[in-house]
Amino acid sequence: MTLWPRALMPSTLLGRVLLVVCGGLALAHALTLLILLRERGEQGLAMMQAYVGRDVAASVAVLDHLPAPERAAWLPRLARANYRYQLLDDTGSGASTRPANTPVRHPLAEPVRQAVAAELGPQRVGPISEAAGTSPAQLTLPLKLRDGHTLLLQLTPPRPMVSATTVGLLLAQMLALIAAAWGVVRVAVRPLQHLAHTAEDIQPDGPERVNTAGPPRTLPTLPTEVAQATRALQALQTRVQAHVQERTQLLAAISHDLQTPLTRMRLRTEQVADAELRTRLLADLDGMSALVAEGLAYARSTHAHQEAPCAVDLPALLDALVCDAQDAGHDVRLHTDAPDLPPLHTRVQALRRVVGNLLDNALKYGESRPVTVTLSTGPGTAQRIHITVDDAGPGIPEADLLAVLQPFHRVDASRNRDHRHSGGTGLGLAIAQQLSLALGGELTLANRPEGGLRARLALGQAQSLGQQDSR
Fold first, then answer.
1. Which pLDDT score, from 0 to 100, does residue 372 have?
2. How would you list the strands of the sheet with 332-336, edge to edge?
3. Distance between CA atoms of 297 and 357, rounded to whole angstroms?
4. How far apart are CA 109 and CA 128, in angstroms?
5. Contact call for residues 145 and 82 (beta carbons, < 8 A)
6. Which ranges carry the Histidine kinase domain (predicted)?
């Protein structure tokens, strides 16, 4: 159960802590203001009860000594901020009050009547009443002059008020506390942000990707706990890179060393007299050779970031790849929706291998149907370049679209049914995925509504490969 609607909850730790701190400060200030208003109201009522009896008695004494015709002219002089006087004529008109027996609920009514009665005498003070439908409350207390005329004391109880200066000071204090809270929270959250950036800098590709410029220089300024966690992350980064590099080197070494025995086996297999057996053995050797070749290619793809970026004419590069496939007898078509695309600053060989792998995959499983390569740009100011390869094969089950980008994952049931190939090694798309990451791009797979697979490589026009290499 949350005390704050989840939709209104800030997404950052800084925002959430500030929300809690500032909310608590605002609540504390509101309670302080209410206490201040309550105390000021009680003080005002107490002061009014203390002097209203004597002041009313003095005013009544003045009116008692004045002739009846002159009393009306003195009423404005005797009026105060919270009460005034009104004379009733002989008919009793001059004020609209509730009946005398109507209960009065205002807490000031009875104390005022008792204070006035103590100064004038109970016989000269009538029952107090409250005007109907008035806000704030209007209390009316009838008084008797010595000549028998009725004088109405119309009293408005004081309400607790806060001056504009007080409100301004409270707001200034609130803003100062919010600024101080923001500074404290910022100091507390900044090390966490540094820790998050350190974690983001962890790259399993190799020691060349380590960010050696940032964290080591700022470690002395960090709190001890965060500095220790940062060092632990950096040590983890080193171990992960060493582990990945060791596995990659192992794969490359095994793939390379297998080439020699495979060559000897091929030579010996060709000497087998049984033609059918020789054909089967050679087919197995071809499969093993393909696996070794793709293992070496995958090992090389992990070092694609070492290639120096340069400018490349992307439409010309794609046209060359498509022409090579056409020369090999394949039905491949190129559509360019961005003919005036400026040169792209990227790693050319890695890009060529990505598109080549996607094109080979489409030709392999496209069931001899046309394969389409499309070059386009995405919408928006920061446009992205899309290289799309569409085939008309059986596609891939939705549950395996992400899994096929991992090494050695094959989906023979869907992509290879009724196909002359026995299935690939499961490294083609994994190599394309690894190279896409080295290019700073994103490789996605999706099944086409009309059938077949769509592989899309998204690249940014403003590549930051040079910045990545200089980190």
1. 92
2. 332-336, 371-377, 384-390, 453-460, 442-447
3. 11
4. 7
5. no
6. 253-463
The distance from CA 97 to its chain's CA centroid, rounded to whole angstroms, is: 61
Q: Is 351 exposed, middle or buried (0-12, 13-18, 19+ CB in 10 A)?
A: buried
Own/partner pairs, 28-37, CB within 8 angstroms, 24+ separation: 29/170, 29/173, 29/174, 32/170, 33/162, 33/170, 36/162, 36/166, 37/160, 37/161, 37/162
Q: Of 91-105, 207-221, 373-387, 434-448, give the range with the top mean pLDDT.
A: 434-448
> Per-domain residue ranges for the chain?
39-91+104-155, 164-250, 307-469
pLDDT higher than threshold 70 for residue 119: yes
Mean predicted confidence (pLDDT) in 24-41: 78
- Under the banding of pLDDT at 50, 70 and 90, the label for residue 422 is very low
| Peptide linkage before 142 cis (omega within 30 of 0) | no
The answer to whether 443 and 456 are in contact (CB under 8 A) is yes
Angle at 336 between CA 332 and CA 340, to 5 degrees: 145
CB distance 49 to 111 below 8 Å: yes
DSSP label at 7? G
Q: Rg of the Cα trace of the chain?
A: 45
Residue keyed to tokens 């000549």: 147
Mean pLDDT of 7-24: 74
Q: Which architecture does CATH list for 307-469?
A: 2-Layer Sandwich (3.30)
For residues 50 and 110, is the Cβ–Cβ distance under 8 A?
no
* Tokens linked to 232: 């632990």
Q: What is the DSSP string of 181-242?
A: HHHHHHHHHHHHHHHHHHHHT--TT-GGG---SSHHHHGGGS-HHHHHHHHHHHHHHHHHHH
Q: Is the pLDDT of residue 93 over 60?
A: no
Task: Report whether pLDDT(140) > 90.
Answer: no
Give yes or no for residue 106 having a pLDDT over 70.
yes
- Mean local confidence (pLDDT), 120-135: 80
Residue 187 CA to residue 103 CA, distance in Å, equals: 61
Phi and psi at residue 394, to the nearest 5°: -75, -10
Eight-state DSSP code of residue 273: S
Two tokens, residue 328: 């090999």
Best CA proximity match to 49, nearest among 140, 122, 115, 109: 115
Distance of CA 232 to the CA centre of its chain: 28
